[in-house]
Amino acid sequence: MSGESLPTDLAEWATVFSRFADVVLVANSDDVDLDALRAAFGPRTLFVFFNKTYKVLDGPFERPSLLVARSSEAGANIVYRREVEKVLKPFDSEAFLGIANLRVSERENFSRPEEFGSRAVGFLDLSGVFATIYPGTHLPTSGFALALWLAEQRLGIGIHLAGFTARRSARWKLFADHDWTFEQTALRLLANAGLIRLTGERAGDLPFTRFAERFPEIDRADIAIVAATVVADRLANTDRAVDRLFSLTRLQGRLDTWLRSMKPQTRKERLRKTQAEEGGSQPRDTNGLAKTSRSD
Fold this sequence. Notes:
Number of helices: 10
Structural class: alpha/beta
Largest sheet: 8 strands, mixed
Helix content: 25-40%
Number of domains: 2
Number of strands: 8
Low-confidence stretches: 286-296
């Protein structure tokens, strides 16, 4: 499919994914084992990568693949950071389908196709999918957004998630923009229902299910209530420890705030400031042009 244009319509995107027997969503995570994934999945598998692929791909990737490039208010992140060539370097020209420029919020704007170079580009607009089911104070991660949408399409294909652990590490941050607890809970529920599959050590990791099977006298609803109570107690203890840390590091925090204030604003920060002054933003359509509202 290399060289062909990619869709802008959700129904057409569903058709693209349905051509494969399996779709593997590869998270940017230390838990991803690409050699194991290559060995586990056959030739009719599409591997989907997200944004900064150079953190999980250290060499050429020859299998059928798709890059999801997430947008922000400033357009696709890899475009305004000038990382397009760096991100796309590992992909084989024959097996690489192209780029899906993704947005999940009306505030996020698509980039123009030519900003990605000569590759096939499509636009995946999931901004209307999460309005009623995702916490309104946060935005979905790219991987979660695509996984949930694919699961909801019920395409009759295998949907596999690799490295979706939501773990911090020396290489990976967990940004506060996303609700990691909600996403991990939702993914476990989808996996329990058989709509997706979690690869790696989390696959089949359902200790309370096995516990209930060993002790049938215990109602599963009681397990959920008690587990929630224990988690709430542990979070309360964590909050007290965090408050203590804040009190001990208040001076360092003030110094950090001052140093950050001396840094030049990023393009995204300048754009947000301009939009706030103008009273709002205009989302771009799939050609990268600002949409205008009609009064009639």
